[in-house]
Amino acid sequence: MFLGDLPFLTYLNLSFNELEGEVPSIEANVTISVEGNNNLCGGFPKLHLPTCVSVTSSSGKKRKRPYAKLLVPVIIGTSLLSLLALFFIICFRRKKMRNNASSAQSSNEQFLRISFVELHNAIEGFSESNKIGVGNYGSVYKGILDEDGIAIVVKVP
User: Model pTM?
Assistant: First the structure.
């Protein structure tokens, strides 16, 4: 049963009920009040409601999209924030990689590069007299480089 089918209905007050959507046309002689329902649309001209915005689907039926105006900015905003976050993550990782590369270069520069022959001569062929300790991971030898007179310590696994 529809409201228009009620024979004794003369006044219908739907005010301030937070209703939304399209108001159907009623052919009966009924006075309707819809004040305070800002999300209503359509209906007959006496109600002074805005026309409903609808999109025709592929099947020919009309579909309402009340949130389309809000959905597009939300999607665009979320996409922009995601891209911005991704940009900062990439910049941070590049900066971190540059710092690691520069520290690796500086650490390589602080160590002497010597050949095995120079090392062998400095600790006198891994002699017991130059052994200063033994641990779980190998023996430790002391020595002096001939060319510079620099004292060295070598761990041999």
Answer: 0.32
